[in-house]
Design a protein that fits this description.
50% of the residues lie in helices and 10% in strands. It contains 23 helices and 14 strands. It is an alpha/beta fold and 577 residues long. The strands form two sheets. It has an eight-stranded mixed β-sheet. A six-stranded parallel β-sheet has the order 11-10-9-12-13-14, with helices on both faces.
Length: 577
């Protein structure tokens, strides 16, 4: 509501400014016109910072170009109303026309520069000799200029107002020349950039050279991701594992926003925004595609029959989404342990038992297995709630209902250090979770004393290693933490029957369950620091969820990948349907 009121006030101020200018111009009232125009420019500056208002005006056929063109026309009308010399009117008419021509020229040349300088594909960690598409040398001079040149019209307006107040006509001529120079700079810079880009590789040459470089590398495995900017974490958690496996891997992302969000990696990375580019980059050496997320554009690669499609997910949890009917489209579904297989059996979503393969959780190699709390160190509790989910039926998070109270109690507990690790997509669907996340972050920051907020994908496992106790929700965080064999608490935010809750969510079998009021929190903290009554059940739960106990979680995954690459290498393409 507050945002709506602000928007209405801004549009109202713009309307009043325009009305005063429209009335003042034919009457030749230069001073009221100038005051209203300057107020209008201030409102325009604010609109430029609030995209929503600008979009609404554009939908109403009142784009920024239309508004500034109207100002130039009113300036000419003001000169006529002031009954100034004909030469001045002609100069202002010439200015208004030139300003629009220069702006159109800048936009057209900038578009050509963008087309010529754009890479059809992007890449990292690939040796592509002799290929470069430099940033145009004068790009920064014209970046964002489309709106800035519109304000140049303030100069002739101030010159005309100055003349009305007794200033010499020279002031108007000088300010018109300055305004004309200002609107010329972006167009001239774009023209210079266009000349600078001549001779550089075009789209087809770039695509061919990058494909040749990837072909020389000969990737056998493709880690494939398509999704919004919040989804990059799904592939980030697999990068350290894929760097260690025997088959050669390449990371393929479909949106450019992932490139800036990918963690550092030695693996080749290729961004292929268009389906036609992906089509050109499917190589004979590629035998296995790994999908950490279900995405609409996954089918662009799945449709190729010569590649084994494997859903690896981005976590192993008891959430309903972990047994998605979409999984039926993959040749294989790789899960950590028997719990994953049983999950698909119970869900009856059409996944065959022979599609499911237990490969462990290779990412867990980064987690220490040091057991109980180490003496001489402050007892550390990690609170890592999940996000609210895409739908209300998949809402497992404790953050909005009990997160604030929980963190407040933890901060008040004696001898306890608190780490807080929110899910990367917290608040994406429900703003209430974003507010709760902000409140908890603020509480942690204000508490000081070693309490901290943990961000980033890799930060989670570092936090596991620091923590002596985890408090989390039904999510893959619980499953992964079980590898450490340290105590954990699972939230039961809706107060469900504990026996039924553990049957529904097997990952909670080795945990203490924390109800809506956090009533037994202090009791659970004391147990984790002492008797640890759930130790035996926790061991059994870990083996059920994560598979056979091993010191190298990557080994089983690597063997499964090598085996699948070998099978699909030997398989005739015509039969791989």
């Amino acid at each position: 509501m507050k945002r709506l009121l602000v928007s209405l006030a801004v549009v109202g101020a713009l309307a009043v400014s325009s009305a005063v200018m429209a009335v003042s111009a034919p009457l030749g009232l230069a001073v009221p016109y100038a005051v209203a125009a300057l107020a209008g420019y201030l409102v325009e500056w604010y609109i430029g910072r609030r995209r929503g208002i600008g979009n609404a005006l554009r939908r109403a056929r009142l784009s920024v170009s239309v508004r500034f063109a109207a100002r130039d026309a009113l300036l000419v009308l003001l000169a006529i109303g002031m009954d100034v010399r004909t030469t001045a009117i002609a100069v202002l008419v010439a200015w208004a026309v030139y300003a629009q021509v220069a702006r159109v020229a800048h936009l057209g040349l900038a578009r050509v520069c963008a087309d010529r300088g754009r890479r059809p594909v992007d890449w990292r960690n690939l040796d592509v000799p002799g290929l470069s598409v430099p940033e145009p040398p004068l790009y920064r001079l014209r970046a964002g200029a489309d709106r800035r040149v519109q304000y140049a019209g303030a100069a002739p307006m101030l010159g005309l107002a100055g003349v009305a107040l007794g200033a010499p006509w020279t002031l108007l001529w000088v300010l018109v020349v300055c305004a004309a120079a200002a609107v010329s700079v972006p167009a001239l810079a774009a023209a210079a950039d266009l000349v600078a880009l001549r001779g550089h590789a075009g789209e087809e040459e770039i695509r061919d050279r990058v494909r040749a470089a990837l072909e020389a590398y000969g990737p056998e495995v493709v880690a494939y991701l398509s999704g919004d900017p919040r989804s990059t974490f799904a592939v980030n958690q697999w990068l350290p594992t894929l760097e260690r496996v025997a088959p050669r891997c390449v990371v393929v992302v479909r949106q450019r926003h992932h490139l800036s969000r990918l963690d550092d990696t030695r693996l080749p990375v290729v961004c292929l925004p268009r389906a036609v580019d992906l089509e050109a980059f499917v190589l004979p050496s590629m035998k296995v595609a790994l999908y950490p997320m279900n995405g609409m554009q996954n089918n662009h690669l799945i449709r190729h029959p010569g590649i084994a499609d494997v859903f690896i997910g981005h976590g192993d949890s008891d959430k309903g989404s972990s047994a998605n009917p979409l999984s039926r489209v993959y040749d294989e579904i790789w899960v950590a342990g028997r719990a994953g297989r049983d999950r698909y059996r119970r869900s009856r979503v059409g996944v065959r038992d022979d599609q499911v393969r237990e490969v462990g959780r290779p990412q867990l190699a980064a987690i220490d297995r040091d057991g109980a709390a180490r003496p001489g160190r402050t007892f550390t509790v990690l609170y890592a709630p999940t996000w609210e989910g895409f739908y209300a039926a998949l809402e497992y998070s404790s953050l909005k209902l009990m997160g604030r109270a929980l963190v407040q109690r933890l901060l008040a507990a004696e001898g306890v250090r608190v780490l807080y690790k929110p899910h990367p997509t917290t608040g994406a669907r429900d703003p209430g979770y974003a507010r709760a996340n902000a409140d908890v972050r603020r509480m942690i920051a204000n508490a000081g004393g070693g309490h901290a907020v943990v961000d980033g994908t890799t930060g989670l496992y570092d936090a596991f290693n620091e923590a002596d106790l985890l408090i989390s929700d039904i999510s893959s965080v619980v499953s992964d933490f079980l590898y450490s064999r340290k105590p954990y608490i699972v939230s039961n935010p809706y107060g469900e029957d504990e026996e039924a809750f553990r049957r529904e969510y097997p990952s909670a079998a080795g945990a203490a369950l924390l109800g809506p009021g956090c009533a037994r929190l202090e009791e659970f903290l004391a147990d984790a620091r002492g008797a640890d009554v759930m130790r035996g059940e926790r061991e059994r739960t870990a083996r059920y969820l994560l598979g056979a106990d091993t010191d190298d979680p990557v080994a089983d995954f690597d063997r499964a990948l090598v085996d699948l690459v070998a099978r699909w290498t030997a398989r005739p393409v015509s039969s791989a349907v």
